[in-house]
TrEMBL record:
Its cofactor is Zn(2+). The lineage of its organism: Bacteria, Bacillati, Bacillota, Bacilli, Bacillales. It comes from the Bacteria. SUPFAM superfamilies: Bacterial exopeptidase dimerisation domain, Zn-dependent exopeptidases. The keyword Protease applies. Belongs to the peptidase M20A family. It comes from Paenibacillus borealis. This is Peptidase M20 dimerisation domain-containing protein.
Length: 476
């Protein structure tokens, strides 16, 4: 192909011939409930049957395209178009999804297309993009465009809950010369906040709280929460609680349910944590007894009412934006447990955060029991490849946006030279109501036109990266 016009024509022809197949492949992946289960190291299914099944489907698709397939012990799978002694360019996407939660308008694992959107859990995060990357490899195989470097796609199954997938991959495989992670927005993400997961625990067996359940995942803002109380008159509870709460009489007492707005913990704007809302209401209206129970609920209410860390004393802002916090809350064996997700700034000191968490917990009779850290990621915006990719995206999309930082985390943070790069657009508002249609939300959907645009950008990105890597090697 001698010109950009000729390349554009070939890409257009390829998409015309393959769009329907791409949609069907994405639907096939979405139909598989690939919520990761409890980590089971050493098992052939380390993240459960659903994740194993979706990797089996990915292997089938890769083998259909005659890629060289490597299964990384159930953590993920790599499909390689070609290897090279000069190193490789790698795409990294994930096939695990967060739990579907409630309040869907349709069954989350029965995908369909409507009004130009592909609907279903995982459509946006991250299965449609994974298929787009697979077809980039198919494009280069079909077109026989020469590359000076290898090209592969890695699909993992633990991105949402620990990123053991890519860490396992890197324990057995050299990193790429450059990695493209299609799990964010264009034009290019140059910084990802650090992510600290923290577990808190405190006793709540001294009162009339029998159960509390609000959320199951660290990184999902709970859309619903419920508590069971004994020795509370249901009519009294209905009178004192606002209309957004429901009260149900049970043989053992009453169940109170609160509704919120779900969303990704890293992007709390427009969300409403139902667990925090419920804890505040139970205490404010005198429905809960027991000094330890009240202190634990006050911890939930006061330390997590602000999604920006003010209650915990860890509020912070730098080039990567504001620190954010989220908590899922559950009660087990007379103890209240909080699963806390903290996204901290690229320049924020992690050790200082942990000390402040311990101090905040102690003030409420709680205890910090576990932390797990994923350090921040940064690639200089003037890195030659990063700058070229940013320019490419802006040129192709007709935008003029700078590279950005975000609270979301991707596989890029574990790679020495990589960036999250599309397929979403920051300049296009969502047509869905707040709390719906996005990743980690009910009625998740992916705009198909964005996938077709991203596919074209990814093909050209491979050529740009291949050229710049070759030039760097010549200069060195």
């Amino acid at each position: 192909m001698k010109s950009s016009q000729e390349l554009d024509w070939h890409i257009s022809q390829f998409l015309e011939a393959n769009q329907e197949a791409m949609i069907e492949d994405a639907k096939g992946l979405i139909r598989i409930n690939s919520v990761g289960l409890a980590y089971n190291p050493g098992s052939s299914q380390p993240f459960g049957e659903g994740c194993s099944s979706v990797l089996d489907e990915a292997i089938r698709l890769m083998q259909r395209e005659k890629l060289d397939v490597t299964d990384f012990d159930g953590y993920g799978v790599k499909g390689e178009l070609a290897a090279s002694e000069r190193g490789s360019i790698g795409f990294f996407a994930h096939l695990d999804v967060v739990p579907e939660g409630g309040d869907w308008s349709f069954p989350p694992y029965e995908p369909f297309v409507r009004d130009g959107y592909l609907f279903g859990r995982g459509a946006m995060d991250n299965k449609a993009a994974a298929v787009a990357a697979l077809y980039v490899l198919k494009f280069f195989a079909d077109s026989k465009l020469p590359l000076g470097h290898g090209l592969y796609l890695f699909l993992g199954c633990n991105e949402e809950n620990g990123m053991r997938d890519i860490r396992h991959f890197l324990s057995r495989h050299e990193p790429p010369q450059f990695g493209i992670v299609p799990d964010a927005y264009f034009p290019l993400c140059f910084a990802e906040k650090g992510m600290l997961r923290a577990d808190f625990e405190g006793e709540v067996a001294d009162g009339n709280l029998l159960a509390f359940n609000g959320g199951t995942e660290y990184n999902v803002v709970p859309a619903a929460a419920s508590a069971i109380l004994r020795d509370v008159d249901p009519e009294h509870a209905r009178q004192v609680l606002p209309g957004s709460f429901t009260v149900e009489a049970l043989p053992e007492g009453i169940r109170i349910t609160a509704s919120g707005k779900a969303g990704h913990a890293a992007f709390p704007e427009g969300t409403d944590n139902a667990a925090v809302k419920l804890a505040a209401a139970l205490a404010a209206h005198g429905l809960v007894r027991g000094s330890r129970t009240l202190r634990a609920l006050a911890f939930v209410q006061e330390c997590f009412a602000s999604p920006y860390g003010h209650g915990l004393g860890i509020a912070f802002r730098d080039m990567s934006g504001e620190a954010t916090v989220n908590a899922a809350v559950r009660m087990e064996n007379g103890r209240l447990r909080l699963l806390c997700d903290i996204r901290y700034g690229v320049t924020q000191e992690k050790s200082g955060i942990q000390q402040l968490l311990e101090e905040a917990a102690a003030r409420y009779g709680m205890r910090l029991t576990r932390t797990e850290d994923s350090p921040p990621h940064y690639i200089a915006p003037d890195d030659p490849i990063a700058a070229a990719l940013c320019d490419l995206a802006n040129r192709e999309l007709g935008t003029n946006q700078p590279p950005y930082a975000m609270g979301g985390i991707t596989h890029a943070r574990w790679l020495p030279r990589a960036a999250a790069f599309g397929p979403l657009r920051r300049d296009k508002p969502s047509p869905f109501p707040a709390g719906r249609g996005g990743g980690h939300q009910p009625d998740e959907a992916m705009y198909l036109e964005a996938i077709w645009e991203a596919f074209q950008i990814y093909v050209k990105a491979v050529l740009v990266i291949d050229k710049l890597l070759s030039e760097e090697k010549e200069q060195n």
